[in-house]
Structure formats: structure tokens, C-alpha cells
Amino acid sequence: MVADQVLIFETTLRDGEQAPGASMNIGEKIRIAHQLAKLKVDIIEAGFPVSSPAQFEAVQRIAQEVDGPVVAALARTVEADIDAAAEALLTGKKTRIHTFVGTSDIHLAAKFSDDRYGRTLGDKREFVLEMVDRAVRQACTITEDVEFSAEDAGRTGIDFLVNVIDVAIQAGATTINIPDTTGYCIPREYAALFKTVRERCKNIDQVVLSVHCHDDLGLAVANSLAGVLAGARQVECTINGIGERAGNASLEEIVMALHVRSQLFGTKTGIETQLLTSTSKMVSTATGFSVPPNKAVVGSNAFSHEAGIHQHGVLKSRETYEIMRAEDVGQAPEAIRLGRHSGRHGLFSRLGKLGILVGAERKEQVYQEFVSLADRKKEVFDEDLIALAQGKKGDVTTAHYRLNHLSVNCGTGRVPRAEVLLYHSSSDTSCRKTAEGDGPVAAIYKAIDMAAGSRHGLVSYAIRSVGEGKDAMGEVTVLISEHGTLFRGIARHTDVLQASANAYVQALNQLEAFRASSGEEFVSDGIMQSFGSDGGQDQ
Ligand code: KIV
Ligand code: ZN
Questions:
Q1: pTM of structure
Q2: Candidate from 17, 212, 234, 244 with most ligand 1 atoms within 8 A of CB, to mutate
Q3: Does residue 151's CB lie within 6 angstroms of at least one atom of ligand 1?
Q4: Which ligand is nearest to the CA of 151?
Q5: CA–CA distance, 348 with 537 (Å, rounded to integer)
Q6: Over the range 41-68, which residues count as b (16 or more CB within 10 Å of their CB) and which as e?
Q7: Which residues of the chain have pLDDT under 50?
Q8: What's the gap in Å between 378 CA and the centre of ligand 1?
Q9: Relative to the CA of 15, which ligand 1 atom is closest?
Q10: What angle (nearest 5°) sits at the alpha carbon of residue 13, between those of residues 183 and 246?
Q11: Of the four, 69, 376, 418, 491, which is 20 to 30 A from 406 by CA?
């Protein structure tokens, strides 16, 4: 069977950007458009030129500067909109005009309420048919690639939907989009629309049928796939599923569903799937919309296994609990996350990968200590395991340092300054230091370093909000390194500067605990540290 190509119409920069709070600047849009070209989407909908000068510029520059995909501009079925789209696309190489009008009774009644559009619903429908005819013909004088969308098709009476599509095809449209604008349909209904349209519309086999689904009921991807099964050969979607209200169908989920289940669909896409995760991150950074860890395909947990049975399974054979390879979507392979649900296989495999081989006589003891630690911590990190295997009973909170006082002075026009009082348990002394920095966190970290007299590298600093509203806490995760070994500190506090300081002191305590133990002889303890081991411990 020769697989049919499903065209990927990417609308992050148009419908995606309509998500409240997601607006992107021109530089970000161009960067994303280049990334979408590398991802090999077929069409980039770059914006809605008539709606603002910024949208116009985005379409114009993307059409000019981005090679590969067709660049589409959105326009209502109105002459001025199509003129604006035409002008924005003027210097583009491969261009499309995408014109749309609301077709459901609800849209007709609301948008065409004035009597000049006709007095009855029937009159208003006639008016819309004429608009569609005129607009599509106008668009065809500019480019031979013209898409027509019957907005709110999901709630449009089937007879009028067939009429309007007939008119658009007759006028020269080459792609017909049947959007579920309000995310109202369920997959069976949405598929039935395509079936009826294919049966009743004239010359339907001469156009590409397209799905465009919103996620108000969480069905955007399911509906899109139902549309493909019913004959659609273009999918309109966005990276991370961002878009109006609950969003659009997510590109990465649709592409991987078509990829993983290609036998079932009998279709293929041209997408470079290994770029899905980096593209998702780029869009998340540009919009400020974080990707939930459990997000399908691109979430940080999408290929992580914590439960013991799952870890055992994937360590033996990935297919037991994975239907696609992490590498195929640009994620790191085989993420075994150690926590309270993990078992022996996960633990000893991870220790093996860290170069720590645990002798048979010590395994049960190390495992029991791991279980007790995992009960106390959300996730057990590598440094915890190192401490545990060294016989520290996972006592990762050994407080070499304690922060007894923190004050920060910063504000407009002031150089941020921090003062800390750090207690050293080894000498039972405290050290007070003051430092300035580019920002308050830099000042705090400098003051703590001075008070601790410690030299190490800062690898990363991340902050996220936990909870909502005024009670939300800042959770800070900080990674420091010494000679290539990483030490992590995590702390939560309603005061994010306090959380930043606490996380840093915790990481320093990890480092001190490691320094204190690094001279120990593991072999005599039944534990052997052998760097370069391929791990693969089993039991
Ligand atoms: O959701 C919708 O109907 C749209 C159209 C403009 C295609 O975004
Ligand atoms: Zn939409």
C-alpha cells in the first residue's frame, strides 16, 4: 500500500498566538518559523495581516525569509483583508491565502445581524455564499493556492455546509477546511461531516480536505485523527497545542499518532520528528507557556519510568512500556526516575551507570536504605545514590552549613546587595558576609560563597511557581559542580529569594558531604566504585 501524504499546516504563529498571553515578538516569530521549516511542516500560517501592523510584518518577513514551507496568510472573505494578505505575501515564493467566514446559524445570527445582510436566515446564507464566491475568486487572482474555511463547521447545518463548500470549490479553492472552531464535536460526528461532504460536494476529489480542531472538550487530537481516517489530508495544528481558549490540536501528538500507527492510517507526514522536543521548548520559551511534565510526546516525563515493574520491563525491553523511541522525538532515551515506586532493577541499573557496583552481600541493605530515603523524598537523585552507596544512609541533608540570616537590598536604580550569616557546623562558628551582584540572586550566591569559602561552578538555576495566587511558593532548583560531579539543591518558600538561598545552601551541603566522604574505601565496605562500568546490574 502506498501511504498517502498528510500535509501539516502549522498555525502556532496565527491561531496559537491567539492564546491569551501568548503573543510573540517579530524576532521570536521568525526564529520559530525557521525552526518549523527545519521540522519540515508543509504550510506555515504566519498571521492575519489585516488585523495589525505587527501581524502584517510577521507574514511579510516570514514569506520573504523562510524557505521550504508554503507561507499562508489569513483573511476574512472581505476584499480589504485579501488585499492586505496579498500585499504581505507579495515577495514570498510559495504562498497561500486562507480565507474564512462563519457558517453556523449562531455565527450568521451574531456576525450578520444587520438587515443589510438580509432579513431572514435564508437571505443571510445567500449573502455569505456570494461573499465566499467573490473572496475566493479574488484570492485566486493572487495565488493559485487558496484555502477556504467554513468557520464553526462543526455546528453548521450539513445542507448549508455542502452549499458553501460547493461554491468555494467552484470559485477555485484548492483546500477546503472544515473547522470544529468551538471544540464541540466528538470524533464520530466530526468524521461523519467529512464522509457527507465527500459524498455530496461536487469536485471534492479535486481539493485537499483539511481538519482544524479546538480542544474545548479535550478532543482536538482525537477529532483531527478521526478526520484523517475519514479522508482529510491536511491537519491544522500548533506546537504544544497552544491556541484560542483550550488550544488547538497539538502537532507533536498528531504527527506521532500518524507515525506510530501508520499501518492503521495508511498515511505519512514529512515531519522530522527528532526536532519535536526542541521545537516544543522553543515555543514554550517564546510564549512563556510551560510544557506540563506529563504532556504526551514532548513532556519531560513522557519517557520516564518510576514504577518498579515498568523500570524492570523497559530495562529488559523498551517495547514493554514504550510505543515510540524517545530519540525519535528528540528526547533522551530511557529515563529511569528513582522514587518511592521504583524497584531493585531500576536502582542497581542506575548505580551501575554511575559507576558504582554494589556487592551481592550489600544489595539488600542498600535497597532498604533507598526505600526509606525514597519515602522521605519526592525523587532520589544521583548524589543521593552516591551518598547511599557510600554508606551514608542517604543522609543527604547533613547540614555542614546553615543559613542563619539573609537580608537583601535591591530596587530601582540600586545595585543589589545581600548579607548572609552562615553557620559552619564543623567549626561551630558563623561567618557574616556582604556582596553585590547583577541581580539579588547573584548577590546572595556571592555572599554565601564568600561565607563558605567554597569554590565551585554554578551549572543551572531554575525557578517555578508551585500553587496559585498569593499563597504560591517559588521552588528553586540549583545545580552546582565540582570536577564534573553535580550537586543539587531544591527549596520552596513563599519568598523566592529565601528559596534561592536555601536551595544553594542545600547544594553546598551535598558538595561538602561528598568532599568529606571522597577518601573512603568502597571495596572494603562491599561497594566498589568502578568508573567506566557499563552498569546493567540486575537482580
Ligand atoms: O478555529 C477556526 O475556525 C479558525 C479559522 C480561522 C480556520 O481558526
Ligand atoms: Zn482555530
A1: 0.74
A2: 212
A3: yes
A4: 1
A5: 5
A6: bbbbbbbbbbbeeebbbbbbbbbeebeb
A7: 394-397, 519-539
A8: 42
A9: 8
A10: 25
A11: 376
